[in-house]
Amino acid sequence: MEVNLLALSIGIGLVVSLLFSELFGLAAGGLVVPGYIALYLTRPLDVAVTLFAALLTFFLVRIASTFVIIYGRRRTTAMILVGYVMGVLLNAALASALESISEPSVVTSAPLLYSVASNAGIEAGVIGYIVPGLIAIWLDRQGVVPTLAVLMTSAVVVRLILILAVPEDLQWFHPGPEVTVSENEEVLSR
C-alpha cells in the first residue's frame, strides 16, 4: 500500500498543533504548517528561505498597517497575499542567483513558483504557496520568538512521529524536483 506522505504529515501536524495549542496556549504558525515543515527538515535551506519570507511578510504588513487600516480579515488576507508574493519573488531571486553560480539547469514547471535546482547540486525554494503567510499571521498574533519556537518544536515532533510510523517511505521522500545529470543534459540540449 502506497502512503501519501504529505497527507499523513499534515494530519499528524494537525494533531500535534492542536495538542501544543491546548497544552501550551501557543499556535505553531497555523495548523498545517508543522506538517509541511516536518517534511522539509532535511532541506534546511528551504526552511530558512520560508521563514525569511514569513518574517519579511510580517514586517511589510506591520509597516503597511501604520499607513493603512489593516485589522481582522483584511490583515489575514494581507498576510497571506504578501506571503505568496514574497515566496514568488524569493523563488525568482533564488533562480537568478543559482543560475549565476552554475550553468542553468532544470527548473520545475514555472521558475517563479517552485524550487530551483542548479547543476552545482544546490536546490532552494519557499515551502508551499501560503505557508509563509500562515506563519506571518501567527508571528503577528503571538510574537516572533514564541511562534518560531513552537513551530520548530512541533515540526520536529511531527518528523519524529513520521520516522517511527513510516520510516521506509520517509527514507525515499525528497521534496522538490529530482534532477540527475542525464536529465540536465537532455533538457539543456533541447
Number of helices: 8
Low-pLDDT segments, ≥5 res = 109-113, 178-190
| Cross-sheet strand order for the largest sheet | 1-2
Order of helices and strands: HHHHEEHHHH
Number of strands: 2
Radius of gyration, in Å, reads 18 Å
Cα shape: flat
Q: Outline the biggest β-sheet.
A: 2 strands, antiparallel
Number of domains: 1
Q: What percent of the residues sit in helical stretches (DSSP H or I)?
A: 55-70%
Q: Whole-number average pLDDT?
A: 82
Q: How much of the polypeptide forms β-strand, as a percent range?
A: under 5%
SS content category: mainly alpha
Instruction: State the end-to-end CA separation.
Output: 38 Å
Describe the SSE topology.
Elements: H1 5-24, H2 33-39, H3 44-64, H4 73-101, E1 116-117, E2 123-124, H5 131-142, H6 144-165, H7 167-172, H8 181-189
Antiparallel strand pairs: 1-2
Helix pairs in contact: 1-2, 1-6, 2-6, 3-4, 3-5, 4-5, 5-6
